[in-house]
Design brief:
- This protein is α/β, with parallel strands linked by helices.
- It is built from 15 helices and 6 strands.
- The chain has one domain: Rossmann fold, CATH 3.40.50.300.
- The chain has a 4-stranded parallel β-sheet with strand order 4-3-5-6, sandwiched between helices. A two-stranded antiparallel sheet has the order 1-2.
- The longest helix is centred in the middle third of the chain and has 14 residues.
């Protein structure tokens, strides 16, 4: 009798003993989890279909939010259809590798027929060449640096596969030096910004999405060329509100067991606010960060806002 394949959730549960906090290894100068570095050849050689869509972000910049918006747009706001599987299954994470039997992003993609929606945290220089050769559409979401580092700090506490985050003050230093998983926030946001016109990248800002989600979702609708009514857009705004997504088991990562994501330490969807950084940075930390930010961002004019 043929053995029934394991579900994604069951695979994760069975992999518990093999999971641990993985060290970072540099790939072309970018620190990545050792499991990604060990499989880098297969990631870099991934060949997408021209119809595939890539959603790219620095970690904790609104990735899951953008994924859910896109999935709802592609299914005309059908909430039940978008509950067919958790986000990580519907929209595979291209470069992620975990110990067997958890399927990698590449394994999930192999089982899906194009057009597919694919997630990545890779800086633009590491994105497989096939995405550019095949002129795939790319949506990039960027979040202001201070809120991004706060969110990433909490995530690295609860994500038991990432290196120990250490103290908040030390974490800020690592963020400024580009020593966290997926490298420098500064290089990441600047890389996609500079290439956005030449490579037809839809570049969105998290703060704009919070301020006026209808306007920003309409931008995505136009970019994707989908026929979705304004009434459906309004429905998608409600379905992708922070509270709704936090309560939705398909988007809140509650299916990931505690030995991997310990949500008693910090929830995967924590606050989703603009300006929460003011509750974490001391005046001295803020001054040091602002001075470093001014130096690292002096060569671009990305209109980030730290409050709305």
């Amino acid at each position: 009798m043929e053995e029934k394949p394991l579900s994604y959730e069951e695979s994760i549960r069975r992999a518990g003993d093999a999971l641990k906090r993985f060290p970072l290894i540099n790939v072309q100068g970018i620190p990545l989890m050792s499991t990604i570095a060990a499989n880098w050849k297969s990631v870099s050689e991934f060949s997408p279909d021209p119809s595939d869509l890539l959603i790219a972000t620095y970690p904790k910049a609104g990735t899951t939010w953008a994924q859910e918006i896109v999935d709802l747009l592609l299914h005309n706001g059908d909430a039940e259809m978008c509950k067919r599987a958790p986000t990580a299954v519907r929209i595979p994470f291209l470069e992620i590798f975990s110990p067997p039997p958890i399927p990698s992003g590449l394994e999930l993609l192999k089982e899906m027929k194009p057009p597919r929606v694919i997630k990545t945290h890779m800086p633009i220089q590491l994105v497989p060449k096939g995405f550019w050769d095949n002129k795939c559409k790319v949506i990039y979401v960027a979040r202001n640096a201070k809120d991004n580092v706060v969110s990433y700090f909490y995530f690295d506490q609860m994500n038991l596969t990432h290196p120990e985050p250490g103290s908040w003050d030390g974490y800020i230093q690592k963020f400024m030096k580009g020593q966290l998983s997926w490298g420098s926030w500064y290089d990441h946001v600047k890389g996609y910004w500079r290439e956005r016109k030449e490579r037809n990248i839809l570049y969105l800002l998290y703060e704009d999405m919070k301020e006026n989600p209808v306007r920003e979702i309409k931008k995505i609708r136009q970019y994707l060329g989908v026929l979705v009514s304004d009434d459906v857009i309004e429905r998608i705004v409600q379905l992708t509100s922070f509270k709704t997504m936090k309560d939705n088991p398909m988007t809140n990562y509650s299916f990931i067991p505690k030995f991997l994501f310990d949500q008693s330490v910090s929830p995967f969807m924590r606050k989703g606010e603009v300006g929460d950084w003011v509750h974490h940075f001391t005046p001295a930390q803020s001054q040091v960060f602002d001075e470093d930010y001014a130096k690292q961002m002096k060569d671009v004019d990305i209109p980030f806002r730290f409050r709305i």
